[in-house]
């Protein structure tokens, strides 16, 4: 997806919990906003990607990020409020998700329709965050 010659570096991460967005700024000066739902359904974890057969992650419309933990100088571990925390989002993965998010989101919605699945949460929850 990203040119093999470009190794993106994240220079800033800003979590916007109320709008469920992660704002990511890269060293090329580009800033993107990724929804928590998109990050969750496209998590680079083995749980989501399986063994070459990606799992369709459903019911994550209201998912949010609980914690962001840096991993060296190359990635961030995201803990979602549904308990998922096994994906390491490298800077390249974040850049690829950000620069291809429109296409990836359309593919996700198409797959949901094809499998008659839903983004809607199974149980509506009101979550309050304390800082």
Automatic annotation (TrEMBL):
InterPro entries: GBBH-like_N (IPR010376), GBBH-like_N_sf (IPR038492). The keyword Metal-binding applies. It comes from the Bacteria. Pfam families: GBBH-like_N. GO terms for molecular function: metal ion binding. Keywords: Iron, Metal-binding. Signal peptide: none annotated. Residues 14-95 form the Gamma-butyrobetaine hydroxylase-like N-terminal domain. PANTHER family: OS02G0197800 PROTEIN. This is Gamma-butyrobetaine hydroxylase-like N-terminal domain-containing protein.
């Amino acid at each position: 997806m990203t040119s093999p010659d470009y190794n993106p570096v994240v220079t800033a991460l800003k979590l916007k919990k109320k709008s469920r967005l992660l704002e990511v700024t890269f060293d090329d000066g580009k800033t993107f906003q990724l929804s928590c739902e998109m990050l969750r359904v496209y998590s680079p974890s083995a749980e989501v990607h399986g063994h070459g057969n990606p799992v369709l992650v459903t019911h994550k419309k209201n998912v949010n990020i609980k914690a962001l933990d840096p991993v060296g100088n190359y990635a961030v571990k995201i803990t979602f409020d549904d308990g998922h925390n096994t994906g390491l989002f490298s800077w390249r993965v974040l850049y690829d998700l950000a620069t291809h998010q429109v296409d990836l989101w359309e593919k996700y919605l198409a797959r949901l329709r094809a499998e008659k699945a839903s983004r809607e949460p199974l149980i509506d929850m009101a979550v309050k965050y304390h800082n």
